[in-house]
Amino acid sequence: MTAVSAEKISLSYGDKRVLHRLSFQINEQNFFIIIGPNGAGKSSLLKALTGLAQTDSGSISFFGRDQQAYSRREFAGLAAMVPQGLETGFPFRVADTVLMGRSPHLGLLGREGQKDYDITREAMEETDTVHLAKRTLNQLSGGERQRVIIARAICQQPRIIFLDEPTASLDPAHQIRIMDLLEKLRKQKKITVCMVSHDINLAAMYADRLLLLKEGEIVVTGTPNQVLREKLLEETYGCRLLVDNNPVSGTCRVSPLPAGLKC
Question: Mean pLDDT across the stretch 124-148?
Answer without folding.
Answer: 91
